[in-house]
UniProtKB/TrEMBL annotation:
Cofactors required: Mg(2+)
Every PilZ domain range: 702-798
Catalytic activity as recorded in UniProt: [(1->4)-beta-D-glucosyl](n) + UDP-alpha-D-glucose = [(1->4)-beta-D-glucosyl](n+1) + UDP + H(+)
Pfam families in the record: Cellulose_synt (PF03552), Glycos_transf_2 (PF00535), PilZ (PF07238)
Organism listed in the record: Cupriavidus gilardii J11
Glycosyltransferase 2-like domain span: 284-452
BP terms from Gene Ontology: cellulose biosynthetic process; UDP-alpha-D-glucose metabolic process
Protein location: Cell inner membrane
Top EC group: transferase
Annotated CDD domains: CESA_CelA_like (cd06421)
Keyword entries, A-Z: c-di-GMP, Cell inner membrane, Cell membrane, Cellulose biosynthesis, Glycosyltransferase, Membrane, Transferase, Transmembrane, Transmembrane helix
Parts of the chain that traverse the membrane: 20-37, 157-174, 180-197, 204-223, 238-259, 534-556, 562-582, 646-667, 679-697
Annotated protein name in UniProt: Cellulose synthase catalytic subunit [UDP-forming]
Length: 853
């Protein structure tokens, strides 16, 4: 097969070489020359080839490429300079290299004399500041600023006067026109200030960074609105204003996002009464529809193990699948099993039906794959005691399995996942403004307020957020606790992930249409802002598609959609983008790395455009879809169905780049800067699309029970009665990984015992050895009774500290590192596309090969 493919490739190469007048032994350089210049007549000098050879030789000497003929090292040297020779340790080191012996020009000598004192002064100040910053008590300074602000706030009329003065100063700063040099000077000053503030801990420096980012953003918006929209033709006006509207969406989301995350509340749990007799009654709802029993069992076991008086808790499995196996299991473990005659209103209807068949003061709701820790109720219920107006307490959704991005790019627990930003920062920011959303699971709701609003909202497919909105309109409070108290399974495939996001996007568009938070009674200003920003987020589909195709307007059709020079665009766009990225890295660094948002949007944009648009036009369109969990992927494969829109956008941008090369080389328009700018834009689009294609290459996953790291003491019980103290390395629903202090002669299939503890209690489990390599032993739990399964969950998933240190090893964001991650993803995406294409070609040739009789 491969020999036939190589033969065809070689035949095509020779045919193309003959058409270009190339000898069979021509090198890559001559091939590149002939792609742009015709072969010369016989006997004439081949000037293009000679010039290319001269340039290549000069570049090789300049880039230290002597003796290296590979394409890879040449490309590498274009971006990374050659390594300097290593100095002996005793040699003196300098910041600047030693001056060369050759005579430099008078201009160079004058520049050296002029700039040397400036360089020394700046270097001295940098070292002094770097030594001084760690010694400053930033937290104490923050408290002093807070006290000063409180004193100033007591002066009648001073706050409005200061706000008015700040508004006037800001208006002057972002509306004052500047030439390119002045704009770049402002950028340099702001950049230095932001980079210094980035190293200072505390919230005040973060607010200062936000203010500087808003300054550069508003300068760009003012310049963009007043200087660049004087377009010529009707087509340019239409496309230019589409681009301006897409940019306007990003500006709005940026500004609202700063307001939403400016001051995360970081709420602490409230204590419960010392006497458990005063604790309220709680009903635990576990809705399920088509999930297998193996997925739901751990959640039921963990719910039974929560630390709450037995006479004050009732557990209900709400089965819309009406399966006998579930009923039988619930009877065995002693929990309530509820069904209904139909599945009207999906999950919301299921919960509302159960409200009439239960009577607890509060309802704790868990998706059927979300396994709560035993401390869940003790951590959340104190808030209701402390605040009688509190109607809902939400905790994060945490996932112990990788989502498609993490699995397909192998970034699990190394890079924050897509949901980390919302549950780590945005919800905490919402909590400051009493705007915490109900997220459908891992939450407790007070029964009386819920019944007052008619139960869980059924008008949209995102019933959770709509329910919280109704509670807030009635004047109730909500709370968010950032500590993870339950964990579940992430979506298994990109198609499932996209389906889930489509439902979220459709539901948010429905709420925005039928119960818009900007209007109506009951909400405060910042509650309206938080809800509106959450809903606007899911309208990014059209703006993202505009950004992914807009370079084609100039490269392919020659349209000027921004009426200004490329230099001015760079002078205003770069400050806005650079400062905004540095600021967001400071705000979101623990929860999302730089440039990953663009990747997520590029993957999902195509698929959410139609659902959000249709839901906005007619909110009744669309239905609830259940996200599949607990599956497996037998083999690696590229999901061609999901990839189609990415391939279309990829082809369009490649065509645009090719035409851009033609505009630079063959038919110059006199605007090389504009051509290069749009080519760079198209290249960034190709990077994002490469990452989108890469994540569509599903990685093999045959393990259903995911292993979770855990290091706690354990005891190994050998058949001869010997006990060996050891430690766990990881666990899953069906087994453990153990690290022994010494190497033991354990054989695969050998029966042993394992002891784990929960607090002062110790539990024994029968197990079978599955592997033994260099003191690392894997065991499988055998023939566990229902009680033993519950005890295993208590010792693993249900531990109060099960997820406390989950993200401790994740590095915080550095913008350039985030860019490197995205570049690597784009590169991997194209490699995976090439592999998939080669596989497809091989399959095609294999099917067409004639069968031998």
């Amino acid at each position: 097969m491969s020999r036939l493919l190589n033969t065809r490739i070689e035949r095509a190469r020779r045919a193309l070489a003959a058409r270009l007048g190339l000898p069979a032994s021509a090198g890559l350089l001559l091939w590149l020359v002939r792609l742009f210049f015709r072969p010369v007549r016989e006997g004439a000098r081949d000037w293009p080839a000679l010039a290319a050879a001269w340039l290549a030789q000069g570049a090789a000497e300049r880039l230290d490429l002597a003796g290296r003929q590979g394409v890879g090292i040449r490309l590498w040297r274009l971006f990374v300079r050659p390594a300097r020779p290593r100095r002996p340790l005793a040699a003196p080191t300098r910041r600047r290299p030693a001056p060369v012996q050759a005579q430099s020009s008078p201009l160079r000598q004058w520049l050296d004399r002029t700039l040397e004192p400036v360089w020394r002064f700046a270097n001295r100040q940098r070292r002094r500041m770097a030594a001084r910053l760690p010694r400053i008590d930033w937290h104490g300074a923050g408290h002093r600023f807070a006290r000063i602000a409180a004193l100033l706030n007591r002066v009648r009329g001073l706050t409005p006067l200061m706000l008015l003065g700040a508004a006037v100063a800001g208006l002057l700063m972002f509306t004052t026109p500047l030439p390119i040099g002045g704009q770049l000077t402002v950028f340099a000053v702001v950049w230095v200030a932001v980079m210094l503030l980035r190293k200072v801990p505390g919230r005040f420096p973060t607010l200062m960074m936000m203010a500087l980012s808003l300054l550069m953003t508003l300068r760009y918006i003012w310049w963009r609105a007043t200087e660049t929209l004087d377009l010529m033709t009707p087509l340019e006006i239409v496309i230019g204003y589409l681009l301006f509207a897409a940019e306007g969406y990003t500006w709005l989301v940026l500004i609202l996002g700063y307001l939403q995350t400016a001051w995360p509340l970081a709420r602490r749990p409230k204590p419960l009464p010392a006497d458990p007799a005063q604790w309220p009654t709680v009903d635990v709802f576990i809705p399920t529809y088509n999930e297998p029993l193996s997925v739901v069992q751990p959640t039921i076991h963990a719910a039974r193990s929560m630390d709450w008086p037995a006479d004050k808790i009732n557990i209900y499995v709400l089965d819309d699948g009406r399966r006998p196996a579930f009923r039988e299991f619930c009877e065995q473990v002693g929990v309530h099993y509820l069904t209904r005659e139909d599945n009207r209103h999906a999950k919301a209807g299921n919960i509302n039906s159960a409200l009439g068949k239960s009577g607890g003061d509060y309802i704790a709701i868990f998706d059927c794959d979300h396994i709560p820790t035993r401390s869940f109720l003790q951590m959340t219920m104190g808030e209701f005691i402390a605040d009688p107006q509190c109607a809902m307490v939400q905790t994060p959704h945490h996932f112990f399995s990788p989502d498609p991005f993490e699995r397909n790019f192998d970034t699990f627990r190394r890079v924050p996942n897509e949901g980390s930003l919302f549950y780590g920062l945005i919800q905490d920011g919402n909590d400051l403004w009493n705007a915490t959303f109900f997220c459908g699971s891992c939450a407790v709701i007070k029964r009386a307020p819920l019944l007052e609003i008619g139960g869980i909202a059924v008008e949209t497919v995102t019933e959770d957020a709509h329910t919280a909105l109704k509670l807030h309109r009635r004047g109730y409070n909500t709370a968010y606790l950032r500590t993870v108290q339950a964990a579940g399974l992430a979506t298994e495939s990109l198609s499932s992930h996209i389906g889930q996001r489509i439902r979220w996007a459709r539901g948010m568009a429905q709420i925005f249409r039928i119960d818009n938070p900007l209007f109506g009674k009951g909400l405060k200003l910042f509650q309206r802002i938080c809800y509106s920003n959450a809903m606007l987020h899911f309208f990014y589909g059209i703006p993202r598609l505009i950004f992914l195709t807009m370079p084609l307007a100039y490269l392919v059709f020659g349209l000027h959609v921004i009426n200004t020079s490329a230099a001015l665009i760079a002078a205003y766009v770069l400050p806005y983008l650079v400062i905004a990225n540095i600021t967001n890295s400071r705000i979101q660094g623990k929860y999302r790395h730089s440039f990953w948002a663009e990747v997520y949007e590029s993957v999902l944009a195509w698929y959410i455009v139609l659902p959000t648009t249709l839901a906005f036009i007619d909110p009744k369109l669309g239905k609830f879809n259940v996200t599949a969990k607990g599956g497996r992927i037998e083999d690696d494969y590229l999901d061609w169905t999901i990839t189609r829109p990415y391939l279309v956008l990829l082809a369009l941008n490649v065509v645009g780049l090719a035409i851009g090369v033609g505009r630079l080389v063959f038919w110059s328009t006199g605007e090389p800067g504009t051509v290069v700018m749009n080519m760079v834009w198209a290249s960034v689009n190709l990077l994002m699309l490469g990452a989108a294609i890469g994540v569509a290459r599903e990685a093999r996953q045959i393990r259903i029970s995911h292993r979770i790291p855990m290091r706690v003491p354990a005891t190994l019980l050998l058949p001869d009665g010997t006990t060996v103290a050891c430690r766990t390395e990881n666990y899953s629903l069906g087994g453990l990984g153990l690290l022994l202090p010494v190497d033991l002669s354990l054989t695969e299939g050998q029966r042993i015992g394992v002891c784990l503890s929960r607090g002062a209690r110790e539990y024994h489990f029968a197990a079978t050895v599955t592997r033994n390599v260099n003191r690392h032993v894997g065991v499988r739990m055998d023939d566990l009774s229902i009680e033993a399964e519950t005890q295993l969950i208590q010792c693993t998933f249900g531990r109060a500290d099960a997820w406390v240190d989950w993200v401790d090893d994740q590095p915080e964001d550095v913008p350039l590192r985030g860019l490197k991650e995205v570049i690597e993803m784009g590169y991997q995406g194209y490699l995976r596309l090439y592999d998939a294409l080669m596989d497809a070609v091989e399959d095609l040739l294999r099917r067409r090969r004639p069968r031998r009789s």
